[in-house]
Amino acid sequence: MANSDNPSPAVSVLFSDSDVASIFAELLEAQGAEVSFLSSSAQLTGKTRIVTEPRYFPEISPDQYRHCLIVGNREAVKGLPTLALARPLTEESVEQALAKLMQD
Q: Are 67 and 54 within 8 A, CB to CB?
């Protein structure tokens, strides 16, 4: 969580479903993140943490993997070299995954 000594972490959210993107954005903002909504993978930069879905994984550079959370079906996220959150999503699993993402 951000505090007065550290700036708020920047997190980019990229989902094809804007409702899903909005839910993750609200949860991240509650943890002190500054959220940016992306409309395409071309907007991904190495300067932010990323929350997205498996379809965009090929566009993420390997140096971003440790600051990336991929959310999707178990088969799609299994074995990815990033943080992964598999469906079915629970409140506890989402909170744990976002907390890990926000850590340095």
A: no
Q: Which helix (H) or strand (E) covers residue 11, if one does? A: strand 10-14
Q: Enter the pTM of the model.
A: 0.90
Cβ atoms of 48 and 10 within 8 Å: the answer is yes
Q: Which of 77, 83, 72, 81 is nearest to 11 (CA)?
A: 83
Strands 83-86 and 68-72: parallel
d(CA 33, CA 63): 21
Which residues make beta-bridge pairs with 11?
Answer: 35, 49
Q: Is 10 exposed, middle or buried (0-12, 13-18, 19+ CB in 10 A)?
A: middle
- Dump pLDDT digits (tens) for 13-69: 999 999 999 999 999 999 999 999 999 989 988 889 999 999 999 999 999 999 999
**For residues 17-28, b (16+ Cβ closer than 10 Å) or e, as one string?**
eeeebeebbebb
